[in-house]
Design a protein that fits this description.
The protein is built from ten helices and two strands; from the N terminus they run ααααααααβααβ. With 205 residues, the chain is mainly alpha-helical.
Length: 205
Amino acid sequence: MASDDATRVLATDKAMRIVDAMRSSVARRGVAGSTFDHVAREAGVSRGLLHYYFGSKEQLLVEVARRDSQVRLEAMTAELAKAQTTEDLSSLWIRSIYATVRHEPEYVTMLLEMYTLSQRQPEVAQELAALSQAMNDAFDRRLQELADEGRIELRAAPAVVAELVIGFGHGLSLRFLSNPGGDMEGVVQAATTAIGRLVRPGPNA
């Protein structure tokens, strides 16, 4: 589906209900169990309407991921714009992990399902890569800006640091979801210390 078509579709109330129902269903049943019948019933629409708007279950999953990731990207970009120090960046990263694990576990579940599906569906793989790259690019740009201003000092290329930080976040989110009784505080602090070796205060901090 072209991006302008996606925008048109998601502007409708029924389409938004379908996307929300799919997100909820995947979190509870996984992709395989989230049939159009289940999603249509939960969204309060006909099964035919799902086919009309999205064509396939895989495309609907892509739209769910695209919408959620766009919301998260906009929020992260706004927070990054406020960051001025290494402490600000660490705080943003920690808050993101806590928010994902405690308030948005279905987002991690959905990404895992998309990853599995992407091994068989090139379209899903392409979309997943694009969503991930957008996050990395936003972090990369802000790191470069802060380094240029002398507020931080990077021990690796901004793109490398961005990849590491976001990768840490994804990995820890998954780990904590699978082991909710684990020592989140201790592990997060250790990861923050490790990242701090790559992002240090600059001369103008």
